[in-house]
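Methods: example folding runs. The two proteins below were folded one after another, and each record is reproduced exactly as written to the output file, sequence line first and structure-token line second.
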Amino acid sequence: MLNEHLATIDGTPLLVRSGSTGAADVVLLHGIPGSGRSWDAVVERLPDDLRPIVPDLAGFGGSGRSLNLARIHAEGQAAMLEAALAACGARTPILVGHDFGGPVALRLLMRRPDAYRGLILMSTNAFPDTPVPFPLSLVRAPLLSGVAARLLFSRFALAGMCRFGAKHGKVDAAAALGDAAQTAAIRTIFAGSLRNLAELYGPIERALPELRVPALVAWGDRDPFFPPSQAERTANAIPGARLHILEGCGHFLPEEDPASVAALIAEFARSLPD
């Protein structure tokens, strides 16, 4: 059972759930579609010596809604999360970021490199030149952008994305999409990312070689959105990073194989110096 903390940061309520005990803190950052609940099955399997800290990012789950891209993309999320994590007593935690949680974790590290013990990235993007396949590329076309975003990131299409992305087990699409306001936040982040790749991801790519925390990159070998070559590129860009491929898994690792994900987090935590 996790305790709930609701911190209002610059006018935005952020819900953070955390354990009561544990020698090491682990911050679990969800992707999109999703919320902090995407980690529930992983949290159940973590050992008692790890204290999970599970935020709902702004726009998702029990946190306040917003459609301001600057506020709810990775840098804005990180700025708010710093204060929310401090409010719930986070102590030099390990950052674990899946999907959109990856850029958020990296932005946290960029803001305060010495505040975190380690980094785990799962099925994520950290590069401005990641290929954008058709029909997603239509979102970048000036004359078609608005219509394409409404169609490609409609609730129906996003539910299909959840089904398509999971290759081992299922993702609860209704829970991942949440209410209409959460679906709108998903659309804002997806469309904003595609339209502003260089601005949003260029600084992240440039920061990767400067990271000095132990890092692990974990990926599903059947991820239809970011292939294993993206995992290799990510691991190669971070000094000393290790790479682990989960066989048979698609994109939604915390939900598809929570036992393996929990074991990876526990093993990584044990490998860190005190």
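Second run, written to the same file directly after the first:
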Amino acid sequence: MAGPVLGHAALIGYLEAEQRAGRLAPGAPAPAIAAALLGGCQQHAFLIRLAGPEAVAAGARLPEAPEEFAERLVGAVLAGHLPS
């Protein structure tokens, strides 16, 4: 496995462990969730770097702070994939 794939595989493993522990729904697509989370973080970093935090907040209507963005992203991506 090549470098970037290792992080993706590790996140898939974490999500699958959360499924086994009952904290993520059994049918949740762990590989797709991992891709959405990693891709969202990459996009946020890309926009911050290229356009600047103020433009990201104003134009893309995303939080400037990575921590706040990550919290919102996780909530959005996992919506519907948590056990009932």
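Comment on the second run: The CA atoms of residues 8 and 34 lie 6 Å apart.
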